[in-house]
Amino acid sequence: MLVGGQGTRLRPLTMSAPKPMLPVAGVPVTAHMLARARDAGIERVVLATSYRAEVFEEYFGDGSAHGLELEYVTETEPLGTGGAIRNVAGRLRGGPDDPVVIFNGDILSGLDIQALIRRHTAADAAVTLHLTEVPDPRAFGVVPVDADGRVTEFLEKTPDPPTNLINAGCYVFRRSVIDTIAVGRPVSVERETFPALLAASTPVMGYPDSTYWLDLGTPAAFVQGSRDLVTGRMVSSALPGPVGDCLVLAGAAVAADAKIGGGATVGARARVGAGAAVDGAVLFDGAVVEAGATVRDSVIGRDAVIGPGVLLDGVVVGDGAVIERGNELRAGARVFPGAVLTAGAVRFSSDRT
Q: Which segments does the entry list as coiled coil (predicted)?
């Protein structure tokens, strides 16, 4: 499981925690991913860490509490997707032809993992890629396949893509293929490893799939993923509460007349005041939304304080920040950790603060 990314598109949230450890629907993204792996019958996972590597082991330990055996391998410098996979090779078990499942650490997916493995085994493939359809593939690299499902090429972003199938960030590798990846330098599987396999006529298969899929790399996608987990559109056995219109974690305090809905999450020790509204937003642990404030489609960091009557719509607020009364911030605004916006300082901002 590749969990070494810094998550720069999610700053300022990732200034204090790596992206795979940010809480989505009450628990870290990685917890949802590990639950998917465990539920598919996988018993042992190696976490390939880098940025803030220590927080993973602090939270997950040896994995026994999550029904898994976990190991950790840390990159001392960024190695890319292929380099990170090669870096954990010494911790992998099994023979040269055994399948190894690789997960990117920032994806929510309803993929049938066992079906992907069966496809890989039946085709005797070197690598099998989970592929997903997107409405507009022009923003992605696309992966055409032939009538038998064999990948024919890997194309970078193009204004006229021949397919709407993209790499969905989950792969099955034949164990021996991992050992062919270059050691000790950055390697991209998309730009180097996979094209080299095709050039050598090595069988690389695609597994197109139309189940739920979401890359959590942007604030809007992060909010959407949390909402989908809370409301049950995306199923996860790691969800720390029942599916419904909102998720309020233990220790949170919500005023009787506050309105919480739209798949919102209220973190542990968070507080929502009288007459406040939290719609589809994610409140991290200890966040405070004061009386009469409205927080919509936003992410509020740990121990941040949203003052009385404040309006936030599509905003990211870093840990410990304070937004005092009279401020209105809308889509695209980002308030960095520890910042204080004094009363009435900003209205309708779409810029970083």
A: none
